[in-house]
């Protein structure tokens, strides 16, 4: 009945974050937090935590201290609350529409994002808050889990069957057993049953019982969660009324909760009773006692609604009992067809991962064909793959970018140079990572010194002899000796050698097609560097050196703008403007001081 | 960039809270309250300030209501139904639920009792509430593509919220009314470290630092008990929701413990409904009530009975919670008129009273109060003021500023005189600008703007690895903005450098600005490759002259004193270049060896593309000196090395 997932393939110490989608999916959590070396953080919505707290208590695998210690480690979140972690990871829970607090997770790192779609429901007539598809808007990868299998009965088509069965039994004064957990779509089912009985005029002679150690807590708690419910339920609290019907029935005394079948339950029994609770496996708990009590009479009935159980096998030991048995699994989960439909409304993701049970074959390139989605196959733009138990899957996520804020101070010192539609500028600075926010600021003096040790300058452009000679003349070099070496004659690369005297010292500049070599005394090297850069910057005439006059002319780029910007850059500094487009949405602002 | 703040109400005043802000080109109205001290047009904020032509929907991007008190939401139906604002309105679920009850109550008093005309109707209130979008705490809501709002818990009353507003990189927090200390039914206000450019905070209790909660409670209970024991009646004017529940819980538990039989009444029909709201919104109360509600709901009172009008003739003693809280009308005023002349009776004013109301006159100690043009009352009963109103005191306000790390503070919702005191305290303690605009006065706050860019993760990674390998000293400036009590900061400093998380990384690269695309920050190498620009390589070969004779002399001198050996400095061939290289190597190692890898072989030192070598060819040797060559890409490193070399060789002289 209770089996842990196999964690053997994972180094739990390396797991940073655990995201819980709903309270049914956290039964191994106490094991993870209390009995392994897991040290990461856990996130879940508030209702998930609260239902999880009472739900885990039902399993004898843990003691209360373990559960409390585990639950205390979970950090509560609300739908669409942004959680930032480790400076670059953003987590957001979106409503899954499956049960109170059920969530799908949007995981964003840099410019890439993953949507994890777990148990979800796109049905709109249930009590939980509606499925929020907006997480698919931005996601480049979608991982789907717990999809509805093909051929399952949807809630809407099956519920009438259940209601009819219940009404029939009540009409012949029989009791009805509905084995299920006190959570999820039971709240809707109960409401539908009651409305149906009301319709049939049977409500005056029926009573409801919820039998479970946690029934009282679950029912009471669910009714204070209006903010987590569908809009139609939210409206109820403005009246003010309990948003879920069981709250109203309980107030009127029509429905009662019991910890077990022993005690008050039997004495309260006056009318045909509809009993919810127990475990759908029918192997332990109150349903076993009730089947013994009422199983012999044919006017009673048992209705199995849980879709994840093999209901026929559950009923096997009781097949000889007279009680009328009905299996009507109700599945509210999203099917793969529905997932495809939902995704069509948004930008298509690059990858979609589905459980292997939903695919029929996996090709050698890793793409998969879906078992029951209409005409959906992998395309180069959107690849479908299947994931299997204990089989790692590598996602090819493209180059990653992080959002960084450029401080105004640093931006002011940037002089971008344009090359066609693109402008580029070399920058350096100190990136502060604080409170999940990265900001690039000018580096301190010490920082700049360290940066200088590692900086790699880049030069573009071509050397031009004429400009070089003009430059030399300008700094007072009178008669440089120019020697040209021809490629063919000297069996080496063509080069031009310029020899001259600068500040009384010998120097020479050797120009080749893609390379220039400067030889000089140490004392004059700064002057010659300046000269050289100026030449590269100002070679407006097509370079005579290579004779290839149609070569694209390019200006030099300086990495260290602090030192050379005045020299290289000709125009006024260009300031960057924020990219978010907020042209004022209103023509006027508030004019001051009128009152 | 500029954020503008204009209070239309609550500027250096309490009542009719209504603050306009302009942030990143968006216009937002924060609260839309009424003034309870006035019955004329001053009751509502002057909306004509926003627009003379009434195109409010056009002018405003949204209206945000912080909580259900009428001085924060009282003018809303007037604004939406009679002025015609039709845009989005945001408030929390409990506020949306409770606000219409109070509005209706207020409407009844104004229209039915006072016979006012041209007032909003019940239908107006209903229509108005239909336009409201309810929000959850912490949920980030995009009002449009650029404007994000997010609510935080504010304590104060059920459903009270503070709002964080962001457009681009500019942000603002509006606190509404809040309480930084948890009470018997609500928790304390809390906000993330959102670092808003502007914090607009209430300052009702700007100069008060209240004594401890416990003693205040004891004080309150003793006063009530003494009075009823003496046969007097106690009247406690309250609003139906909020403080009332807090005081009810307090008195209920006291009565239970002391086993008192004196009747307690609650004057309004709203109570039943109000308590029902508290039961449904129990998630908004404090942890203790939340955790026990399944077994015992705090809001099912045993001792407190509903008030009936006829009870006013009963001899007493009794305790009556009567609405409204400022004695401006209703049961509380009626009871006050009846009981005021008797000195045995007592009135406990638990809240704040707006100037002009009967309540404020009582608080001012007036002995004869003119209630309207026909009646005046002698005030002989005992008047006790109990600061029980759930507002933050000066300490709480400072605490919130610290918690969210605001860069500017604007004070509203308080008295002018006390604001001035708090203002100077904020400016000295935090060193940040603080404003207290009067109604209609615009505050313009310049924000430093930042430009969001996308940085290549591999660029960041390379620099992170480089920095952690180099074990460079932390280059972060001493964190002056951090308050000294920040224990995490102290903890971080106490860690050895290797495990301390880096908070700054020195980084360099190339910005690429493509029209219509986000600005990217990438490796310079990659950018140039992609751009297809012709790279040009420049290599320098320079000769570094040094004085070989001086060097030799210095060495010989040193050797002489050190070893006194016969061979030292002998006739054997002494290679001054090799010795100079040794000197340079040692100097480089100590100067930059921590940051870059130096390689040394027999006759040369290599650092990246830089080579320092002794001349080999005869022609080169003749000139003397060391030869240093480097590619221009290592220019910065080379410059540094040259200066080290110069120093090292010069020192031998």
Task: List the SSEs and their pairings.
The complex is a heterodimer of chains A (595) and B (653).
Chain A: E1 17-19, H1 29-35, E2 41-45, H2 46-56, H3 64-72, E3 74-77, E4 82-85, E5 89-95, E6 103-109, E7 112-117, H4 135-138, E8 141-144, H5 155-171, E9 176-179, H6 186-200, E10 207-211, H7 215-222, H8 231-234, H9 245-252, E11 255-258, H10 264-268, E12 273-277, H11 286-294, E13 301-304, H12 311-315, E14 324-327, H13 336-344, E15 351-355, E16 359-362, E17 368-370, E18 383-387, E19 401-406, H14 408-412, E20 417-419, E21 422-434, E22 437-441, H15 445-454, H16 465-474, E23 481-485, H17 487-490, E24 495-502, E25 505-511, E26 515-521, H18 525-538, H19 561-568
Parallel strand pairs in A: 1-2, 2-3, 7-8, 8-15, 9-12, 9-13, 10-11, 10-12, 13-14, 15-18, 19-22
Antiparallel strand pairs in A: 4-5, 5-6, 6-7, 16-17, 20-21, 21-22, 23-24, 24-25, 25-26
Chain B: E1 2-9, E2 18-23, E3 26-30, H1 56-59, E4 62-64, H2 70-73, H3 76-82, E5 89-92, H4 93-113, H5 122-130, E6 132-135, E7 140-142, E8 147-153, E9 161-167, E10 170-174, E11 198-202, H6 213-229, E12 234-237, H7 243-258, E13 264-266, H8 270-280, H9 287-292, E14 304-306, E15 319-322, H10 330-339, E16 346-349, H11 358-363, E17 368-370, E18 376-378, E19 382-385, H12 394-404, E20 409-412, H13 416-430, E21 434-435, E22 443-446, E23 451-456, H14 457-470, H15 487-494, E24 504-514, E25 520-522, H16 524-531, E26 537-544, H17 548-562, H18 576-592, E27 599-601, E28 604-607, E29 610-613, H19 618-623, E30 626-631, H20 635-650
Parallel strand pairs in B: 3-4, 4-5, 5-6, 10-11, 11-20, 12-15, 12-16, 13-14, 13-15, 16-19, 20-21, 23-25
Antiparallel strand pairs in B: 1-2, 1-22, 2-3, 7-8, 8-9, 9-10, 17-18, 24-25, 26-30, 27-28, 28-29, 29-30
Helix pairs in contact in B: 3-5, 4-5, 18-20
């Amino acid at each position: 009945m209770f089996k842990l997932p196999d964690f053997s393939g994972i180094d739990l110490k390396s797991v940073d974050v655990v995201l819980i989608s709903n309270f049914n999916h956290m039964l191994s959590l106490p094991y993870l937090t209390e009995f392994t070396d897991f040290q990461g953080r856990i996130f879940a919505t508030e209702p998930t935590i609260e239902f999880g707290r009472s739900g885990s208590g039902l399993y004898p695998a843990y003691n209360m201290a373990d559960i409390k210690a585990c639950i205390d480690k979970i950090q509560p979140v609300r739908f669409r609350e942004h959680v930032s972690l480790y400076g670059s990871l953003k987590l957001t829970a979106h409503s899954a529409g499956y049960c109170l607090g059920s969530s799908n997770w949007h995981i964003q790192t840099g410019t890439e994002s993953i949507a994890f779609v777990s148990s979800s429901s796109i049905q709109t007539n249930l009590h939980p808050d509606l499925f929020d598809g907006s997480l698919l808007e931005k996601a480049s990868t979608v991982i789907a889990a717990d999809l509805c299998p093909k051929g399952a009965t949807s809630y809407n088509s099956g519920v009438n069957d259940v209601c009819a069965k219940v009404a029939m039994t009540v009409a012949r004064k029989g009791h009805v057993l509905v084995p299920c957990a006190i959570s999820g779509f039971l709240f809707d089912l109960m409401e539908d049953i009651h409305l149906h009985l009301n319709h049939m005029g049977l409500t005056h002679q029926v009573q409801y019982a919820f039998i479970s150690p946690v029934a009282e807590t679950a029912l009471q708690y669910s009714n204070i969660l209006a903010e987590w419910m569908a809009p139609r339920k939210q409206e109820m609290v403005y009246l003010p009324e309990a948003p879920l019907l069981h709250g109203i029935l309980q107030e009127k005394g029509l429905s009662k909760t019991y910890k077990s079948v022993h005690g008050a339950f039997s004495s309260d029994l006056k009318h045909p009773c509809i009993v919810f609770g127990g475990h759908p496996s029918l192997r332990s708990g109150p349903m076993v006692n009730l089947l013994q009590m009422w199983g012999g009479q044919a006017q009673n009935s048992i209705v199995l609604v849980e879709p994840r159980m093999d209901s026929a096998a559950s009923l096997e030991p009781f097949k000889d009992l007279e009680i009328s048995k009905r299996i009507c699994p109700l599945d509210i989960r999203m099917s793969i067809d529905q997932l495809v439909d939902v995704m069509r409304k948004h930008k298509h993701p690059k990858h979609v991962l589905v459980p292997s049970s939903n695919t029929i074959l996996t090709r050698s390139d890793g793409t998969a064909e879906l078992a029951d989605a209409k005409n959906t196959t992998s395309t180069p733009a959107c690849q479908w793959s299947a994931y299997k138990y204990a089989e790692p899957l590598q996602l090819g996520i493209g180059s990653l970018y992080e959002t960084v804020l450029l401080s105004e101070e640093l931006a002011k010192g940037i002089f971008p140079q344009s090359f066609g539609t693109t402008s580029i500028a070399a920058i350096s600075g100190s990136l502060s990572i604080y409170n999940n926010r990265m900001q690039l600021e000018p580096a301190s003096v010490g920082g700049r010194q360290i940066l200088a040790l590692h900086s790699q300058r880049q030069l573009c452009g071509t050397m031009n002899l004429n400009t070089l000679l003009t430059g030399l003349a300008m700094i007072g070099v009178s008669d440089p000796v120019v020697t040209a070496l021809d490629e063919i004659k000297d069996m080496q690369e063509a080069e031009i050698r310029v020899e001259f005297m600068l500040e009384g010292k010998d120097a020479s500049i050797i120009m080749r097609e893609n390379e220039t070599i400067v030889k000089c005394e140490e004392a004059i090297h700064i002057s010659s560097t300046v000269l050289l850069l100026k030449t590269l910057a100002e070679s407006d005439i097509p370079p005579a050196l290579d004779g290839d006059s149609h070569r694209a002319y390019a200006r030099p780029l300086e990495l260290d703008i602090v030192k050379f910007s005045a020299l290289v850059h000709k125009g006024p500094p260009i300031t960057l403007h924020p990219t978010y487009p907020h042209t004022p949405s209103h023509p006027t602002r508030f004019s001051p001081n009128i009152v | 960039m500029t954020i503008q703040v204009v209070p239309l109400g609550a500027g250096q005043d309490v009542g009719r809270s209504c603050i306009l802000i302009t942030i990143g080109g968006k216009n937002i109205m924060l609260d839309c309250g009424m003034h309870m001290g006035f019955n004329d047009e001053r009751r509502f904020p002057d909306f004509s300030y926003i627009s003379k032509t009434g195109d409010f929907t056009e002018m405003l991007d949204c209206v945000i209501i912080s909580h259900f008190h009428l001085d924060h939401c009282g003018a809303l139906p007037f604004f939406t139904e009679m002025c015609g604002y039709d845009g989005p309105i945001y408030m929390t679920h409990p506020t949306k639920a409770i606000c219409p009850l109070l509005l209706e109550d207020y409407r009844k008093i104004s229209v039915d009792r006072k016979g006012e005309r041209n007032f909003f109707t019940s239908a107006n209130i209903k229509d108005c509430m239909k336009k409201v979008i309810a929000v959850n705490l912490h949920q980030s809501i995009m009002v449009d593509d650029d404007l994000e709002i997010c609510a935080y818990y504010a304590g104060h009353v059920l459903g009270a919220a503070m709002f964080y507003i962001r457009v681009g990189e500019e942000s603002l927090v509006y606190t509404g009314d809040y309480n930084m200390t948890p009470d018997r039914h609500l928790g304390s206000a809390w906000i993330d470290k959102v670092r808003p450019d502007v914090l607009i905070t209430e300052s009702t209790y700007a100069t008060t630092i209240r004594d401890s909660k416990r003693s205040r409670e004891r004080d309150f209970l003793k006063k009530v008990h003494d009075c009823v024991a003496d046969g007097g009646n106690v009247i406690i004017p309250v609003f139906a929701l909020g403080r009332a529940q807090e005081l009810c819980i307090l008195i209920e538990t006291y009565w239970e413990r002391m086993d008192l039989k004196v009747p307690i009444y609650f004057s309004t029909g709203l109570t039943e409904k109000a308590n029902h709201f508290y039961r449904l919104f129990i998630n908004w109360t404090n942890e203790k009530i939340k955790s026990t509600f399944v077994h015992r709901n705090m809001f099912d009172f045993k001792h407190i009975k509903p008030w009936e009008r006829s009870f006013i003739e009963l001899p007493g003693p009794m305790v009556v919670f009567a609405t409204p809280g400022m004695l401006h009308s209703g049961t509380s005023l009626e009871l006050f008129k009846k009981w005021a002349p008797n000195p045995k009776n007592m009135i406990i004013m638990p809240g704040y009273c707006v100037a002009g109301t009967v309540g404020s006159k009582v608080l001012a100690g007036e002995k004869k109060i003119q209630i309207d043009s026909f009646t005046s009352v002698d005030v002989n009963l005992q008047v006790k003021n109990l600061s029980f109103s759930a507002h933050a005191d000066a300490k709480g306000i400072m605490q919130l500023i610290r918690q969210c790390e605001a860069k500017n503070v604007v004070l509203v919702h308080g008295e002018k005189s006390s604001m001035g005191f708090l203002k100077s305290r904020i400016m000295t303690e935090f060193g940040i600008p603080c404003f207290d605009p009067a109604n209609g006065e615009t505050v313009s706050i310049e924000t430093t703007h930042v430009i969001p860019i996308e940085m290549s993760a591999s660029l960041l990674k390379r620099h992170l690895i480089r920095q952690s390998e180099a074990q460079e000293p932390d280059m972060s400036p001493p964190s002056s903005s951090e308050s000294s009590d920040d224990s995490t900061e102290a903890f971080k400093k106490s860690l050895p450098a290797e495990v301390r998380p880096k908070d700054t990384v020195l980084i360099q690269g190339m910005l690429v600005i493509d029209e219509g695309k986000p600005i990217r920050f990438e490796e310079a190498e990659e950018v140039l490759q992609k751009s297809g620009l012709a790279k040009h390589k420049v290599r320098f070969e320079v000769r570094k002259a040094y004085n070989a004779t001086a060097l030799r002399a210095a060495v010989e001198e040193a050797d002489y004193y050190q070893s006194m050996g016969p061979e030292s400095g002998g006739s054997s061939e002494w290679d001054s270049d090799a010795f100079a290289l040794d000197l340079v190597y040692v100097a480089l190692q100590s100067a930059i060896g921590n940051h870059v890898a130096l390689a040394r072989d027999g006759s040369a030192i290599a650092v990246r593309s830089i080579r320092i070598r002794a001349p080999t060819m005869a022609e080169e040797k003749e000139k003397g000196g060391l030869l240093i060559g480097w590619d221009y890409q290592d220019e910065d490193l080379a410059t540094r090395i040259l200066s080290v070399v110069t120093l090292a060789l010069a020192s031998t002289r």
